[in-house]
Amino acid sequence: MPNSSNATTVQEHLRDLHTLVEDSLKQWNLSTNATAATALVGQAHPNRLSHELHPLGPVQVGMLQKDFKEKIAAIRAICLSFAQGPLHQSINVGDASSTSAFKKYSTLLKEETQLEEALSSVKASMTQCQNTLRAASQDGGIKKDHLLGSIKDMATGLGLECYLDTGSRPYSALPVSILTIGGIVIVVDIEVESTGAILRVKVSFFPEIHQDERVDRLLAHNLRCKCGKLLQTEDKSATANLLHLPDCSRDFDAFSKNLKALAILDNFQKKYPVDFFHNIRAMDLDLKELFRREMLLTNNNIERVFKHGHGIPMTHAVLPGPSVAYWAPKSELLDVSWSALEMAIEQGANEKVKIPFHRISITMEESTASASGYLPADRAGFLLSEEETQTLSGLSYGSIMNDQGSVAASTILQQPLRWVVPTADSTIEATYVAVLHPPVVVSEDLAKQLAALSNQAGFNTTMGMNRDQGYLSLQELLVNRAIEQTQWEIVLDQEPNAVRQLFSFDRTKCEARLLHRIPFTHISQVYMCTKLLRQQMVFNALFQSCFKETSSPEEIKKRLAAAQSENGEDNDGSNNTVDTTPEVAIIIQTPQPPNIILASFINPFTETSMRIEIVIDPVTASPTVRLDTGMSHSSPMMGFHAGGEFQHMQQQDQYMQHQQQQDVFVVDSIKLTQVLLLCDSIPILVRWILKRSFAWMKERHQLMGRSGSMHSGRRPSSHPEDGGILKRPRV
């Protein structure tokens, strides 16, 4: 929450508007000058604003609109005051003797305003140049001045007070500068040596119940040099100078976000009669209690709790406050010691957790229409204890909710949770927000479901606005590279005749959004966020697995040239050769993301069309696989339902019995699902099916006593758009 502006003139309000626009453009990763904007227009496929210009993007669109309206209203009020003021009246209707003097005075005011505006622009440019030079300097003293000046500007912009002092510390032989940043609840002390090295960062709270050294380590980590060491001169005296390495840098962006998270709560505490730090701490305790209950029910199976429960709670991990780790790539979990992770979580040792988790961090932000309620100071948490669940029936400051959405047949918890829901106070313009680390690409339908959690007017309806005909679809955003490319080659085996998988995807537009934040009104809604995001992340990972090429274009050309040279001359003495390596063209379709993925191709061994149907469960985020074989290209999708599930086992058994009677290659759905859960990759699943079908054809050939090439009587397709086998022509 930026500090309230003290602007009193039109020029000052216009500068504030310019700052609002510039800050928003930076958060949207858009150009802030005319030259860069012109270059952006010239790009064939620039980053589209529509993916982030929505209520769940990096910018609070509602607050931006509010600030714009307030600034414009202030400018209009100043203009109206001038139009109705004595100077304007004297110029228009005054007597002739004084009109000339008033006009001259008015002209002087205009010239003074223009000069002030020009000087203000020059001052801003000089300040920017000064900061750039200080940041690039390797001198420790200059680094120190730049560091302290940058932090002070951040803090004052957030409405905090700053005090600078210089002294000595027993643990440093050099002079130490102490920058104190103060609010009404928090006090941040930053000690910096004269060389620019950070000695200590200490965050103090009042009351001390919120004290936590992990906040100190988090802020200190942001400010310390990323080079990891300093070059020290030969002089070891108290006036010694340390030259920073050329690549020395500090993460000012992360520090600014972390300081802002603390400043927002501190400013809210000053503005409203609510203990916001207490409410955030209550959410942290609730998340840890849910983790304890699920660990107890699963016999300390932290992997299951992470993948299918409420997630792993961590405090002050990315932002100050509670967070939940809800997903990670399967490749990053292969060598994880879950027992060591459990110990690190119990100890609160965030620095020992090296897994690149996807997290939800809980903090607060301003809101134009709040629907959140807040606990009184004598209530420790929103979640009812196991004893209170049986005894507590009513509250004076709110109600008790039975959370039926927290349980299902596949969830760890089998009894509905009971929550305290405090009465909402509409006068408090604040709301809880779940910040996603990192941001997540989601389908527009899923984004609307998440937007509905905030219960704020307009959030759901604005998700579908501001569409651009040139926007990137969900699939194109996930591919994240040149979208002009039509095929992606993946080869998973090293032998000469390995099957090459050529992937392409259906270019039908599917709306997508890049989510940075999810406002919510109650802690119980965080579990809904994790379930929806897990489903989307599984969909994204499976889809992206099809478009990670194993060979560069140069490697492909070299391989083809080598294959042709090895083939030699044919019978007529010419150099015409043909590459007989099978190539399977696979088309990926996503008819209802993130619920289903279809992969269609023609098997080069059975020469029959196949389609892999992957359905992702919305509760467990677990994929279920079915293989349809021998169908025609014009047949409708089999087994797909809007709910994302099959008409299950009986129909599947009947279907497989029918296929076996027709002497067609089939694979049990349970086995296919096990393979996909193990590899988390569609190309590996396709390779497994191809190898299985080759063994089946070989066994079938032996049983039938045939001695020729395997042939099913079906004409193989040579068109990649039909999902067929590509045949290289003779050259």
TrEMBL record:
Keywords, alphabetical: Activator, Nucleus, Transcription, Transcription regulation
Pfam families with a match to the protein in the record: Med1
A GO BP entry: positive regulation of transcription by RNA polymerase II
Record localization: Nucleus
Sample GO molecular function, one term: transcription coregulator activity
Mediator complex subunit Med1 domain span: 151-548
Statement: the UniProt record of this protein carries the keyword Metal-binding: no
Disordered: annotated span: 705-731
Annotated function: Component of the Mediator complex, a coactivator involved in the regulated transcription of nearly all RNA polymerase II-dependent genes. Mediator functions as a bridge to convey information from gene-specific regulatory proteins to the basal RNA polymerase II transcription machinery. Mediator is recruited to promoters by direct interactions with regulatory proteins and serves as a scaffold for the assembly of a functional preinitiation complex with RNA polymerase II and the general transcription factors.
Protein name: Mediator of RNA polymerase II transcription subunit 1
Protein's organism: Linnemannia gamsii
Lineage, highest ranks first: Eukaryota, Fungi, Fungi incertae sedis, Mucoromycota, Mortierellomycotina
